[in-house]
Each structure stands twice: as structure tokens, then as C-alpha cells.
Specification:
This protein is of the alpha+beta class. The protein has two domains: 32 residues, no CATH class; 63 residues, no CATH class. Helices cover 38% and strands 16% of the residues. Strands 1-2-3-4 form a four-stranded antiparallel beta sheet, with no helix packed on it. 4% of the residues are buried.
Length: 117
């Protein structure tokens, strides 16, 4: 959604209008350009991360309403929704190196010597 602080061809506008035009400001210059599309194939890291998101989202959908409600305090503490609190915790557990939940220092390759912080 574009944020326009005056008429479209005025001093300041930012964001995209539909899928055709992007307004932005760079180094004191307002720029209007054709909205670009991502090029090339997604990297392996992108594909893996998207799979983690899909799995975490599917896991959330499989929770009962009572289990979902249990995430409300965590969400309230971080000022986010219960869904976002769950996704944050789930992705931290799925993605190596982002938190202690990944292997809790029990990686097989190093005999449990790794401490993930």
C-alpha cells in the first residue's frame, strides 16, 4: 500500500500502487519506477526457509483452540499475536543457529559440546 502525504505527483509519496508503480525516496530524491519482479530461481536457503514456514504454519493449524490459547500470554508479553508468538518459537526451533531450542547442545557431530545461544 502506498503512503501518500500529498497528491500523487507531489513532494512525497512512498510504497507501491497496485502491481505497476513504486514510489520511493532516495538521497533527497523522489523516484517513481515500474515495480520490479524478483528474478531468477530462489536459492536453496530460501526454499528451505519457506519449507520451515509452511511446516510451522501447518503445525499451528493442527493445534486445538485450547493449545492456541496457551500462546496468548507469550504473545501479550511480546505485544504480538499468539500466532506470531508460536511462529517465532517454532522457527527458532526449526532453523539451526537461531536459538538454543535447535539441539539444546546435544549435536551428534560434536558429542554435545555445542552451546547455542
Amino acid at each position: 500500500m502506498a503512503k501518500v502525504t500529498g497528491p500523487l505527483h507531489s513532494l512525497t509519496a512512498s510504497g507501491s500502487i497496485g502491481n505497476t508503480l513504486t514510489m520511493l525516496r532516495q538521497m533527497r530524491t523522489n523516484i517513481a519506477k515500474k515495480k520490479s519482479k524478483p528474478g531468477g530461481q530462489p536459492s536453496t536457503a530460501q526454499i528451505v526457509r519457506r519449507a520451515y514456514y509452511r511446516q510451522a504454519s501447518a503445525d499451528w493449524m493442527a493445534l486445538t483452540p485450547l493449545e492456541k490459547a496457551a500462546w496468548k500470554p507469550a504473545g501479550d508479553a511480546a505485544q504480538i499475536t499468539p500466532y506470531n508468538a508460536y511462529m517465532s518459537a517454532a522457527l527458532e526451533a526449526y532453523i539451526p543457529g537461531t536459538g538454543a531450542a535447535w539441539d539444546a547442545g546435544a549435536a551428534v557431530w560434536d558429542g554435545g559440546a555445542a552451546i547455542w545461544s
